[in-house]
Design brief:
- By secondary structure, the protein is mainly α.
- It has 2 domains: about 50 residues, no CATH class; about 55 residues, Arc Repressor Mutant, subunit A (Orthogonal Bundle), CATH 1.10.10.10.
- It is built from 4 helices and 3 strands, in the order αααβαββ.
- It has a 3-stranded antiparallel β-sheet, with helices on one face.
- Keywords: Membrane, Transmembrane, Transmembrane helix.
Length: about 110
Amino acid sequence: MHAHLLPLGGALALFLLLFAASRFAPWGLGLAFALAALLYLGLLRWQGGLLRRGPSRAALERLAMREAWRRGGFLRPEDLLPFLSEAEARALLEGLAARGLCRREGEGFRF
């Protein structure tokens, strides 16, 4: 349901704008509907591609840093389980440690 909200909102806004710009003429209704339908399909395809790819590596790193900040600067891979599997979380935190953004302390990582 939520995945269709952006395309529907964009199509509705374009439809109303074009129909009002044509001064509510009958030909404007058809033109506005056709262009709004094209916009809806285009936005739906674009948004679907973004959702299939998932979050970027940078977004996941920001998420880990934000969680570490919320937890007082110490983060374990288990703390990221609502967002990632444990293996992915461990790999993400190891990558951050390799770049010098945190250091390993026992079972977790200190930021």
